[in-house]
Task: structure prediction
Amino acid sequence: MVKVLRSWKTCYKFFQAFLLFLIFSDLVAFATSYDEEMKQANFAVENGDWKSARDHFDNARMTLPSSAEAQAAYEFCSFSAGANKEETLKHLTKIIEEYPDSPEAHMYRGMFLSDTGNTESAFKDLSKAISLRANLPNALRYRALIYERKNQPLHAIDDFSTVLKTPSKTGLDYFFRGKLFFSQNKLLESINDLDMAERMKIFLPELYKYRGMAKVDLHSYSQAEADLSKALEMSKDDTSILFSRAEAFSRQGKYDKAIADLSAAIKISPASAELYNKRGHALRASGKLKESALDFEKLTAVRGIASDFTNLGMVYSMMGRNENAIAAYDKSIKLDPKIAMTFNNRGTAHAALGHHEKALADYAKALELDSAYSRNLAGGGGAEFALSNRARLYARLNKHREAIKDITDFLNCRPTAGDNYNWFFLRASEHLRNGQPANAIQDFWRAVYLLPKWILFAVLGAIGAMISIAVQWLRTRSKRGR
Result:
């Protein structure tokens, strides 16, 4: 009898172990099946196949009914595949009521609310999800995009930076952060992120556009041209890309190509004043003054801000139509009497017509309006500046002391400018005419010292050639005399 009982106990333990094995095997099978369904579902989401994603999430929630993530994901994908908006929100809310501490439940309702335009409620849900689990990639992505819409780019950058520290990072994450860096003028960071996005197989026209625009701002014009050309191959009717490539062309002196891009953009968007403005500048730089004047005349008619009249006046001056230029500057000053450059330009037009007192008054007004004006003289972009123009005018009027003072102030403003040798030569001339030969000699040698080496060598070479010719002529003459 004892033997039978022992045998029964052994069989019972064996049977108990077998049942536990079966239960464990079922759990493993369930877990494996759930994980596989979730994996397939997420893969379908990445490819935008919402119906397939919904089916896989449905299988996952059937496999593991207690999974709030699977249930919420199923509802979100059902909506994306065409389910009723109100019903979806109702179901997602019910899931959160059942599982209030589920980060995925809050995340999917936040994503749903964001996609349906309920930004504030979406932001609260997504923030709740992130508070429950800090590194939740999709919640961070959606919240970053909401931050961008709310004009809080630094917070958006922080969220994308957190995503990029997770294993779930993608090329699109680098792309979006690169765009945000560009908006904050962090150009090198923007280019680095956009480069990384491209290496991760993101080939969007916007990627090449923003990277090209960043390179324009960094003065890498040929590289910018290449990127913007790629962007145009993908998005031919994007006027912002045409505009940016035109800028890259202009900075390289390729004005005809810039004009062609801007003309193409104007055909697409004929009401854009800025396109006419940009083309007017390119036409002026290329010497096509009549066409440039037409663009600026159109701008003064349809937009008519002060800078439009100033630009028109500059073109008129270049065409020798100084009276028309003065009329345009008068209108610009009437619209905005605080732009120093307009007074400077009008002074130049008056000087060309012999209105010397009016010219001097305009130059003085320009310097009075802009206390920083005389500190920003290096490279006028086609326009002379008040001190330099007034100095030349004083020299023409034989007001040597006044000319010397303006030239001195001008040189003090830009002590290292590459063309200062011209101004030392001019001041030497004025010193000489003012009876100051010692000062004239001093300025002359300063000018010679600052001459670019190629000019100096050319001058010395010319002098050497003249001496050689003179010596040869003297020898020839001496032989003939014998």
About this structure: Residues 172 and 271 are 34 Å apart (CA to CA). The radius of gyration is 38 Å.
